Every structure is written in structure tokens, then in C-alpha cells.
Amino acid sequence: MNKKEALKQQILQLTREYYQEVHGQKKAFEPGKTFVNYGGRYFDDAELVNLVDSSLDFWLTAGPWAHKFETRLAQWLGVKHCALTNSGSSANLLAFYALTSPKLGARRIKRGDEVITVACGFPTTVTPIIQYGAVPVFVDITLPEYDIDATLLEQAYSPKTKAVMIAHSLGNPFNLEAVKAFCDQHNLWLVEDNCDALGSEYTIDGVTKKTGTWGHIGTSSFYPPHHMTMGEGGAVYTDDRELDKIIRSFRDWGRDCWCIGGVDNTCKCRFTGQFGELPVGYDHKYVYSHFGFNLKVTDMQAAIGCAQLDKLDGIVEARRRNFQVLRQGLEGVPGLILPEPTRNSNPSWFGFLISVKPDAGFTRNELSEYLESKRIQTRNLFAGNLLKHPAFDEMRATGEGYRVVGSLANTDFVMTNTLWVGVYPGMTEEMLHYMIATIQEFVNSKS
Hints:
Layout: H1 3-22, H2 45-57, H3 64-77, E1 81-85, H4 88-98, E2 114-118, H5 127-132, E3 135-139, H6 153-156, E4 161-167, H7 176-186, E5 189-193, E6 201-204, E7 207-210, E8 217-221, E9 234-238, H8 241-251, H9 299-309, H10 312-330, E10 336-337, E11 345-346, E12 351-356, H11 364-373, H12 393-398, E13 403-404, H13 409-417, E14 418-422, H14 429-446
Parallel strand pairs: 2-3, 2-4, 3-13, 4-5, 5-8
Antiparallel strand pairs: 1-9, 6-7, 6-11, 8-9, 10-12, 12-14
Helix pairs in contact: 1-2, 2-9, 3-9, 4-8, 10-14
């Protein structure tokens, strides 16, 4: 071993020791005193070692670790292509903008075209549609699944419809069988926002696949509370080679070249091609086929992700197990609507949804405030009804830029009556049973 390798091994060993000293000591759970997070970073010394290892290489931008992560995540998902990006929101942006590419011909989404979606969820599933100038068409959701009401799809369809872009709500897959059949029938793009559902599965005609892989494009987020974390990070994946090239083009400044960082002339036409009205032989590395962005990650983030991938199967199982503990413990508690998995699905839950019935004798906010007072963190189901937010004030005033099909009765119900608590792998049995007992205690006090 040369001096460089010896020094690196010494640094990495010290990193492991540092983890044990600073992060490895777990304090005993004290009900009412220990804060019960809805989610958080779930890691050990492997993530810290990878982070330091990659920093010593000082690659900084996306490089070998990013390529390794993209390859491994694609294999885990069962898809051909995966492009790493700097957030789940950027992943949604890239997924949508890829479908606006002129390279797609008549199937490209143009300004004024319509995209079917829901108002109950996280805003960046919808934001790219509006930012581009396409028209979101909002339909309601079902309860207690909290996903799109697929019976409204035909009513939402118009000659301008080009795509469906929706999320698997809090890890619970939407009705992929119905949505995919609708998209196939009308030759529509299907984008699965899989940011809250990494590891969820869905079965169609006896075939089981992971969510995010049934549609044309899937997206993931690696923000700390999600199934995996890089701190910030996301991914866009597809089985379509042309879509993958377009996604990477939009991610990497809009360039036409697909060489990975540090590699030249993969296309074998770096100085011989003719593009647009550029002179023949113009350097392909500086040819731009889209108005793109720069949405890459650092190699250090990807190194953390590689360590997280080693834990991903266990993370998914822990989330399912923790969900079942809460589901069984709260079964029969009056005044509450508990979540149900979508038929033909095996969710990888992001959280545990609880809705308060209108005649419960208490409100969602009262329950939330009580849980928070007992050091149990709660969250609403993101936007509730996105259309009610200040961002839509101008659009609501003019009535332009979006459509609503039918009522959004269930969406409005979620906005006022629904909260969720965590199921992430950092939850202990003591925490789970403390949450159950605290919810029961509150409901009993209102009886």
C-alpha cells in the first residue's frame, strides 16, 4: 500500500470512529420528552465514509459515484435508464420538459396543451406544467386511498390532452391499471411522480413491477425524509432511450452531446456533424438542441446515495412494518378514517394518513395540536387543495390557465380534515406505541 492509500484508509477509519462518537450513540426513548419525528436521515458510518472518500477524490461535480448510483438504481427499479438530478422537484421538471422536446414530433407537449393531474399533493408535480404554459386539468381523489379518481379520466379528456402526470400519494400507488389503460387508449404520456413511493409495487395481469416503471417516465426524491437521502437529490428514469437522451439534454444545459463528464467523442461525430445552421464540424460538445438547465448533483451526494442503496430493501420493509403497527393499533378508534392500500398494490409507505370524520366531535387541527404538544410531529397532506393557495390567486381571478373537472369535494375534505404521522425506519416500537396511545388518549378525552 502506497502512502496515499495508507493515508486514505487512516482517514476513513477515523471517520468511522467519528460516526460512533457523534452519531452512533442512541438515547433511550422517553415518552413525552423525546421528539418523535415524522421522518429524518437514516444512516450509519457507511454514508459518512462514502462522503469523505468522494471528497478526497475532489471530483465535486457529477462523476464516477453518480454514474455508479444511476446504474445501480436503474437495476434495482428494473429500468434501462436513470438520470440523477439535484432534487425530486427538478426530476419532475425534467420529466415534464422532456415531453416538450421537438424531437418527439407530433407527440410533444406544446403550450396550451392539457395535462391531467390532481390538486391534492405536492406543488412541484403541477408547477412545471404551469411554468411551461401548458394547462393542468384537475380531478378529484378517492378516500381512503388519497389518489386520483380514475373514473373521472374520460370526463377530463379533451382533444388537447397530451399527458397524465400524478403522484403515488404518500407511497400508496394510484390505480395504475386504469390510468395506464386510459393513457394507452388515447396515446398519452404517463409520468409517475414516485417521490414518496420508492419501493412500492403494483400488479397488472399477474405482472408485478415497482411504481415509477409502469409509465413512460418516473421520478424520485432523495430529500432527507424520503426513503433514501442524499441531503438533496432526485432521479428521472425510463425504459425509453430517446427520452433518456432528452432528459439528460435538459439536465445538462440543453446540450445535444451525451458524453458523460470527463469523456469526449462518445458520439463519434464531435467534429464531423452538422447541426442546425452551425458550420459543419462545429464541436458537438457545444451544440444545444434544447433550452435546458443545469440540474446535476455533486459526486459527494451520489456517494451518500450509493451507501443508502445498500439499505433500501430494509428501509422499504421497515416502513411497511411500521405502517402495519399503526394500522392495527388504531383500528376501531372512533372518529378517524384510516388509510387503505390501493387494490393490487403493495405500498412502500411514506407516512400514515389519518382523516377526522366530520361528526367526530373534534377537528384535525385539534388533533394535530395535541400530538405536537406531546412531542409527536405531524404534517398535513402537503398542499391539501393546491388551487386554494396564494400562487393561484391570479389564475383564479381570471379563470384561465387551468381546468377543474367535477367537484374537488374529497380534495377539500383532505385540506381541512387530514394529517399524517411518520413510519420512517428510525421509528422504534416504543415510539409507534406511544403514538397509538396518544391518539387513543385524545379521542377518548373527546368522547
